[in-house]
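I have been asked to look over a protein record a colleague put together. Alongside the sequence sits a line of tokens, each denoting a local backbone shape. Please read both lines and tell me whether the tokens look consistent with the sequence. Take the sequence as given and treat only the tokens as open to question. I have pasted the whole thing underneath without changing anything:
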Amino acid sequence: MCLAVPGNIIEVIEGADTLSKTARVNFGGIVKTISLAYVPEAQVGEYVIVHAGFALQIVDPEEANIVFDYLREMGEIAEREGA
């Protein structure tokens, strides 16, 4: 199963064109460089949904926090089940 997760843009790196624009995105303390080819209008401070290294859409902070809460719950459940 593949999962798209939200991350917060901490730096936008301009490319030679729209397709090569990237960003450094914080996923709860893990920072990755991802492509902004699908959402070149994304800015520092915004949350984006990321799958396979590509930002797919911009989401509001409240929606991103709901996903973070679900992911935390899933981790807590896995810990209780001994996974």
User: Anything to note?
Assistant: The longest strand covers residues 5-13.
